[in-house]
Structure formats: C-alpha cells, structure tokens
Amino acid sequence: MAAVRTPVVVTDRESLARARDRADGPVAVVMTMGALHEGHAALLRQARARAATVIATIFVNPLQFGPNEDFDRYPRTLEGDLGICAREDVDVVFAPTVNVMYPNGQPNTRVNPGPLGEILEGASRPGFFHGVLTVVLKLLNLTRPDVVFFGEKDYQQVALVRQMVRDLDLDIEVVGVPTVREPDGLALSSRNRYLSEPERTTALALAAALRAGAEAAPGGADAVETAARDLLGSTEGIDLDYAVVTAPDLGAAPETGPARLLLAAKVGTTRLIDNGPVLLGERNTR
Ligand SMILES: Nc1ncnc2c1ncn2[C@@H]1O[C@H](COP(=O)(O)OP(=O)(O)OP(=O)(O)O)[C@@H](O)[C@H]1O
Ligand SMILES: CC(C)(CO)[C@@H](O)C(=O)[O-]
Ligand code: BAL
C-alpha cells in the first residue's frame, strides 16, 4: 500500500498564499463544505489525475444558507475530512473560519447569478446562488486554480459556475463530475447524515423517480415530469418541491433529444436534490 501523505492544512489567508506560491502547476481546486464522502473523493481523484497540486477547500458558507436553514446544524467533521484528503493525496487543505472568509462581516458586494439563479434551487432558496457564487469567486481568487471540479449532483450550481467563469472572463477550466451513488441508487450527499434509517429508505424514491422519468421519456417532457411527480407524490414521507425537465444547459426543455430531469424533495426535515439525463422521444406532445 502506498504511504499516506498528510496534506498541509492552512486556515488563514497568509498561510494559504504561502502554500499557493510554493505550489507546482497546474493547480486543481475542489471546493466543499466538508462532511466528506465518496462523492467528494471522486472529485478529488479526478483533480489528482489532472494536476500537479490539488487544493481542497472546506468551508460551511453562511452566505448561502437561508435564515431557517441548517447552517448551525450542518455536519462539521474536520478530522475525518482530513483523513479522506490524505487518502486521496490532496496537497493542501484550506479550512478557514467565517471570520477569515468574511473579515468585515457579510459582504455588500455579491455575485448576481441572473435569471438562471432564480429558478429551481434559486426559487426555493432565495439568495442561495448569490451566496454560492460569491464564495466560489472568493475561493477562486484565493487559490488561483487552473482547473476546478464540481459535482453534477448540484447540477444548477455547475451551470452557474460555468456561466460566471464565462461572464467574468475567469481563465479557469470547470469540470463537472458525474454523481456518485450508493449501490441502491441514493445520491451521496452530506445531508444524508440527517436521515433516519426509514427516511433513508424513503429517500430512494428520488432515484426511482429519475428512473421512472427516463422510462417515460419517449412520451416527451410532460410525460417525464408526470411520471416523476406521480412516483414522488405517491411516496409517503416525501414532500415534493419540484420535478422539472430542462435542456441540458437548463434552458427550456427541447421537443426531443437529450434533456435533464431535476428533482428536489424533503424527506422529513431533510431537503435532498437529484438529477439525471432523459432522452426525449418522438411521442412528445408538449
Ligand atoms: N454524490 C456526489 N457525486 C459527485 N459529486 C458530489 C456528490 N455530492 C456532492 N458532490 C460535490 O461535491 C462538492 C461539494 O459539495 P458539498 O460539500 O455541498 O457536498 P454535498 O454532499 O452536496 O452536501 P449537501 O448534502 O450539503 O448538499 C460539490 O461540487 C458537489 O456537487
Ligand atoms: C461550492 C460550495 C463549496 C460553495 O460553498 C458549495 O455550494 C458546495 O459544497 O457545493
Ligand atoms: N451542495 C450544495 C450546497 C448547499 O446545499 O448548500
């Protein structure tokens, strides 16, 4: 077995700047909120395969949490996270405090995600993507990567990061990584830790809805949405937020061809999201 190398852990800007100045290029960054799992590990592995230096960031960003959301309760498991980073051969972990990231309190200047940030997750979590893009831009400025990796589990987030990189002329490659799932289909997510055993079983309905949607796809976008909503609506313990078919770039769903089914639902008090590809067929009536 290869020796596990401990990453350099930095918590302040000056130490990060020193570690970054010493880094060999190209530099890859994986941003996380911690409570790391095999989904994060997949991002770290792709980063390792692409770059001489891998930087992971661990920061639970208050700016992207609504007043009634789970900021205080969000799992903080730094020791275990560092074990995963060591296993995945991460070079540098940046784990700042809120005060390090926001020394002047909540920033007045925020990245506006535009209309794409107001639909789906943005409609259910007002201000969410302003908070996400603001911290992503700050972390990009602090870590100065050549390439960044984001998970497709948070499909709209990757689309918005790509949009920001394009719109603001950031010279950074954005790589989307396919969703890592449990063998039974549940998408890995830090918030899965909130689920009781029965709730975890209930949560399998999201993956089942993606399968039902994909099977209904020859009938078109309406048929996909109906199949997913019927399945989720008839599952006890699921409170459906949305089941929506869009184009792969999150524009209006096409008549036929590749599209995306995006889901959000609450299982008990835990809000989960998932998405998957659907191939819309000729029987589309939309
Ligand atoms: N199952 C997964 N497969 C691939 N990437 C993932 C998966 N889960 C999370 N990621 C990615 O890891 C990065 C960090 O995400 P984050 O730390 O918020 O974890 P998370 O599991 O999505 O947490 P939460 O449950 O709070 O949404 C994001 O780019 C996210 O898309
Ligand atoms: C990109 C991110 C680290 C910004 O806080 C977060 O939204 C996440 O973990 O997906
Ligand atoms: N995984 C995206 C971050 C969030 O839900 O707050």
Kindly list the characteristics that best describe this protein.
3-stranded antiparallel beta sheet, 286 residues, ATP binding, 6-stranded parallel beta sheet, pantothenate biosynthesis, 36% helix, alpha/beta, 21% strand, binds pantoate, Rossmann fold, binds beta-alanine, 2 domains, binds adenosine-5'-triphosphate, Pantoate_ligase, Pantoate--beta-alanine Ligase, Chain: A,domain 2, Pantoate_ligase_C, ATP-binding
Task: Summarize the entry for a quick read.
36% of the residues lie in helices and 21% in strands. The protein is an alpha/beta fold and 286 residues long.
How would you sum up the major sheet?
6 strands, parallel
| CATH-derived topology of the largest domain | Rossmann fold
- Shape, per Cα inertia axes: globular
Q: Which structural class do the helices and strands define?
A: alpha/beta
The radius of gyration computed from the alpha-carbon positions, rounded to a whole number of angstroms, is: 19 Å
Helices and strands, in N-to-C order?
EHEHEHEHHHEHEHHEEE
Give the name of the CATH architecture of the largest domain: 3-Layer(aba) Sandwich
Distinct small molecules bound, one entry per kind: adenosine-5'-triphosphate, pantoate, beta-alanine
pLDDT averaged over residues: 97
Q: Can you tell me the number of structural domains? A: 2
The strand line-up of the biggest sheet is 1-4-3-2-5-6
Please, what is the CATH homologous superfamily of the largest domain? HUPs
Question: Could you give the count of β-strands?
Answer: 9
* Count of alpha/pi helices: 9
* Helix proportion range: 25-40%
| End-to-end gap | 56 Å
Low-confidence stretches: none
